[in-house]
Amino acid sequence: MGLSVDSTRFAVQAWQAGVRFDRTLALGHQHMMVGPERIEALLQEHGAWPPPGGEQALHAALRGNGWRFAEFLRALGAQQVDSVDASPYEGATLVHDLNQPIPAEWESRYDVVVDGGTLEHVFNFPVAISNCMRLVKPGGHLLLLTPTNNYCGHGFYQFSPELLFRVLSRENGYEVRRMVALQDGAAESSLFGVKYPYCFGGDWHEVNDPAAIRQRVNLVSTLPTLLMVLARRTEAVMPFKTTPQQSDYVTQWQEGDVKPPNAQPAAAGGLEAWLRGRFSETFCRETLPRLAFLLDPFRLRRFRRQFSFANRDCFRPVDKAASPSASKPPASGQQ
Q: For the stretch 50-73, what's the b/e string if a residue is b when 16 or more beta carbons lie within 10 angstroms of its beta carbon?
């Protein structure tokens, strides 16, 4: 994938919030779908100006290098920028298949590990994310820019907030500092036979931890949707000594809360029992819901709202241009 305008802003805001990029590792050789003028504007907007090497040096570096990612990170204070890939075809510093565990000597080597769109392409995700987590120093950060919705076919996976909150948890030596969801993607079109790329982005929404709000964070979106995650390594423990479990199931197991599917409120239970006693289950499951549409014509609209960014239990709109310190961190909880 690579960094868009929004994910570039997210990285600059991470620096603004105190993240040190001194020694940074990228998964793959990262592209930047952002022009040099926009990069400089974002750095200025969020206080990362003048850059450590001076304005003129950054001007020349950004305009003289199509990749730009290393130059961008050096403007955030990076002294070393490495990349890891399964193949050397794009000039990776480290050649390693993330499907396999990293060498022990790489443990806790980096201040920041950046995934700009690689993990969804790695089949053995538990090993790959564990590798990323182990590469980070205690006190360092993992920065993930990863697909969550409507990227079917882009890679092997799309990742839910539930998964990343459970993986980047206290038990695994991590805490999520920030998780933002937004519609974000790149496409290609043509005019007069000339192809051209274009990007689209949307509003930012802080994502709440399903364990904290005690409900699933579901999303049905019309455009490709990205998660931008900043997580801090709190201690050097081996990830996944205990297998992560989905939080709502853990709650049910702990509370012994066994409810049948579609359990009715007490007042409605009698009517449901009466209907089931007089009509077949197929009639109750299929015919009656179709007839109910006449009395409940807005049910699909409510469904779409419940599973959209309009659900304030799950998502909270934030001003993308605001300082991250002015942003409330996402609700979080531990199993």
A: ebeeeeeebeebbeeeeebbbbbb
Q: What is the pLDDT of residues 203-230, one digit of tens each?
A: 999 999 999 999 999 999 999 999 999 9
pLDDT digits (tens, 9 = 90+) for 74-119: 999 999 999 999 999 888 999 999 999 999 999 999 999 999 999 9
Phi/psi-derived region of residue 191, left when phi > 0, alpha when psi is between -120 and 50, beta in every other case: beta
User: Closest Cα to residue 284, out of 272, 296, 294?
Assistant: 272
Domain range annotation of the chain: 5-251+315-326, 266-297
> Would you state the CATH architecture of domain 5-251+315-326?
3-Layer(aba) Sandwich (3.40)
Whole-number Å distance between alpha carbons of 116 and 1: 6
CA atoms of 267 and 250, how far apart (whole Å): 29
